[in-house]
Amino acid sequence: MEVIWTEKAEKTYSKNYEYLVENWSLTIAEKFDEEVLKTIDIISKNPHLGLYNRDFDFSSILVVKQITLFYTVVGGKILLLLFHDNRQKEVKDLF
């Protein structure tokens, strides 16, 4: 299934990646990137694997302990909505 990155997904991915580079290491950031790619590959093959939220009409899947990917399936395509740092404010404030 085709995967499309929304602008918000690109921004939140970059923000999390840059945080890891600046505060941890390039190695940790690259491991995060690998986990993101694995997660996207998994949901592209099985888009209904994530936890579906009926109230907001999106699914979520844990990328790493600290980061959750929110996405939705529309017209046979997966739209990546955002990468949420689980230590931050509630998700409802982000949409």
What can you tell me about this protein's structure?
This protein is of the alpha+beta class. It has helices spanning 7-23, 26-45; strands spanning 2-5, 51-53, 58-64, 67-74, 77-85. Helix content is 39%, strand content 33%. 21% of the residues are buried. The mean pLDDT is 94. Keywords: Membrane, Toxin-antitoxin system, Transmembrane, Transmembrane helix. This is Type II toxin-antitoxin system RelE/ParE family toxin.
**Helix tally?**
2
Q: What's the count of strands?
A: 5
Mean pLDDT: 94
- What spatial form do the alpha-carbon principal axes imply? globular
* Proportion of residues in extended strands: 25-35%
* CATH homologous superfamily placement: RelE-like
Uncertain stretches: none
Query: Any idea of the CATH class?
Result: Alpha Beta
- The topology string of helices and strands comes to EHHEEEE
How are the strands of the biggest sheet laid out side by side?
Answer: 1-5-4-3-2
Major pleated sheet: 5 strands, mixed
- The quaternary organization reads as single chain
Rg is 13 Å
The CATH topology comes to YaeB-like fold
What topology does this entry show?
Elements: E1 2-5, H1 7-23, H2 26-45, E2 51-53, E3 58-64, E4 67-74, E5 77-85
Parallel strand pairs: 1-5
Antiparallel strand pairs: 2-3, 3-4, 4-5
Protein name: Type II toxin-antitoxin system RelE/ParE family toxin
Keywords: Membrane, Toxin-antitoxin system, Transmembrane, Transmembrane helix
InterPro entries: RelE/ParE_toxin, RelE/ParE_toxin_dom_sf
